[in-house]
Amino acid sequence: MNEGMKFDDEKPCMGFLVKSFPNALRKVSKQNDYGAKKYSPLNWKKVSIERYEDALVRHMVSALENPSAIDESGQEHLAAVAWNALALIELRNMDKNND
Length: 99
Known about the structure:
This protein has four helices and no strands. The chain is an all-alpha fold. Helix 2 packs across helix 4 (about 75-99).
């Protein structure tokens, strides 16, 4: 059987990311769900970058002080660190794409 061609050598392997970090992504997804229910699903796009920078640092300090500490969402603080980092990456890239 001949296999078709697919030119994706230079594209990121998104499936590998999920396979590499299933537990971490599950926790970040729960963090995302918590925020979507508390505010609204895409409310985060309307918040300033500085607020996410501050939140990332606050959660990082809490995680370093007490690695087993849980935040108001019921997740480890590192899940909030990761979520805030993703929000910052997304918002900064949205700004670049809008220029």
